[in-house]
Amino acid sequence: MPTRPTEVLFTPYALGDLQLKNRIVMAPLTRTRAENRGKVPNGLMAEYYAQRAGAGLIITEGTFVSEQGQGWYGAPGVYNAEQAAGWRRVTDAVHSAGGLIFVQLWHQGSVSHRFLYADGRLPLGPSAVNPEQLIHVEGGKVPSETPREMSLQDIKQAVEDFRHAAQVAQDAGFDGVQIQGGFVYIFQQFLHEVTNRRTDQYGGPVENRARLLFEALEAVLEVWPSNRVGVKAGPMMSEHGALRATDETLRTSEYVYRKLADYKLSHVLLMRQNADLTGTPIEHLSGDAVVHHFRRLYEGTLILNVGINAQHAAQLVGEGAGDLVAFGRGYIANPDLAERIRRDAPLNEPRPEYFYGASATGYTDYPALSQS
Ligand SMILES: Cc1cc2nc3c(=O)[nH]c(=O)nc-3n(C[C@H](O)[C@H](O)[C@H](O)COP(=O)(O)O)c2cc1C
After folding, report:
1. Atom 22 in ligand 1: which residue has the minimum CA distance?
2. Strand, coil or helix: what is 318?
3. Given 3-state DSSP classes, what are the helix, strand and coil percentages for the chain, each rounded to the nearest 5?
4. For the chain, which domains are there?
5. Distance CA 147, CA 271 (A)
6. Mean pLDDT on 126-134
7. 302 C-alpha vs ligand 1 centroid, how far in Å?
8. Which H/E stretch holds residue 296?
9. In sequence order, what E strands does the chain have?
10. Nearest C-alpha to atom 10 of ligand 1 is from which residue?
11. Catalytic (active site) residue 185
12. Of the listed 48, 73, 79, 185, which one is catalytic?
């Protein structure tokens, strides 16, 4: 029998002390189906995640570590008892279906809006610099504003919020956590020299700009063993606004990866970039170049993501460029994506108009193979 080209994706993998049944990860995907004001996960979300339990590992949608950390209407939290009970339904459903699930811990920092806070206060950021992003509020998107600069007390609170959320996540039955250290959120806002103008121990040289990320990581490590804690990090950010790549971006990400390597973590999740990077300061990191670059700096488990199909995933894992591959839109549209890859079956097409919906439509209604 000839081996299938994607065979390598179905070799089991030891992720710390967890045995993954395949190398296929469901990427973190905000889907805005939580009851909003309380940010509580519901039965619909339990059904959605259980449908996708064929992945070797599920990483949940970004989930707020505190009320302050919110910045997207309809996204859930993991900081109080009601949310913990909601997530318990999700983790039980995934475990009953034979899956493993980590929660993505999220603090949006300045990428938020006063419309989202009950008292109408401004979001917090490293400095009073508008991140120039669009913010998803109730009923649509609005431009971000200039945040209030965080005091040292605010920073201490944010670190404590990560520790607390890590504990709530453990109580809710998650198998581990992933810190959202990438894209345009609080840790990138501190790492980025345009949004971080601080002159204290959290601003200036890269060791200072990275301090908040590592303090939050160490707080989470008070709750979880290191082999149950992952971090999403890397140079791929927004193509627009104050957080786009600069000449500092690559050096900053290299510093973060080298330092993460000391922690014996569960994994690091690395994004590629779909868009054309020509003319940007990171154009030499286009396509798989970013993967090969960071693989050299990081020997632990690397989860690769963005624009990778099954054949490409098998090639990357086969050559050791990464250990696992995360699929985002593939998992939105195909609850049984792993099975479809295994059988080389056709895929359902995603319907982007329902990515951030509020109902079962475009969420739990994509058919599995057995139903098509
Ligand atoms: C609807 C949607 C929501 C997303 N939400 C998150 C999120 O909450 N956290 C995160 O780290 N990435 C998020 N992403 C990025 C995905 O994890 C992933 O990087 C992206 O879909 C590219 O992978 P793909 O080419 O396999 O789809 C989101 C992407 C999409 C399309």
Report:
1. 306
2. helix
3. 35, 15, 50
4. 7-112+156-371 (3.20.20.70)
5. 27
6. 98
7. 17
8. helix 289-297
9. 13-15, 18-20, 24-26, 57-64, 101-106, 124-125, 134-137, 140-143, 148-149, 176-180, 229-232, 267-271, 302-305, 324-327
10. 28
11. yes
12. 185
**Model pLDDT for residues 81-110, shown as the tens digit of each residue:** 999 999 999 999 999 999 999 999 999 999
Strand partners, 38: none
pLDDT digits (tens, 9 = 90+) for 248-297: 999 999 999 999 999 999 999 999 987 888 889 999 999 999 999 999 99
Mutate to test the pocket of ligand 1, among 329, 332, 334, 347 (most ligand atoms within 8 A of CB): 329
- Mind listing the pLDDT tens digit for each residue in 246-256? 999 999 999 99
Is the pLDDT at 2 greater than 70? The verdict is no
Within 6 Å (CB) of ligand 1, which residues are found?
27-30, 61-62, 104, 180, 232, 271, 305-307, 327-330, 355
Determine the distance separating the centroid of ligand 1 and the alpha carbon of 188, expressed in angstroms: 16
Query: According to the model, what pLDDT value does residue 372 have?
Result: 67
Q: What is the pLDDT of residues 212-242, one digit of tens each?
A: 999 999 999 999 999 999 999 999 988 889 9
* 0.90 surpassed by pTM: yes
Write down the pLDDT at residue 370.
Answer: 87
Q: From the CA of 190, how far away is ligand 1's center (Å)?
A: 21
How close is the Cα of 259 to the center of ligand 1, in Å? 25
Q: Nearest residue CA, atom 6 of ligand 1?
A: 29
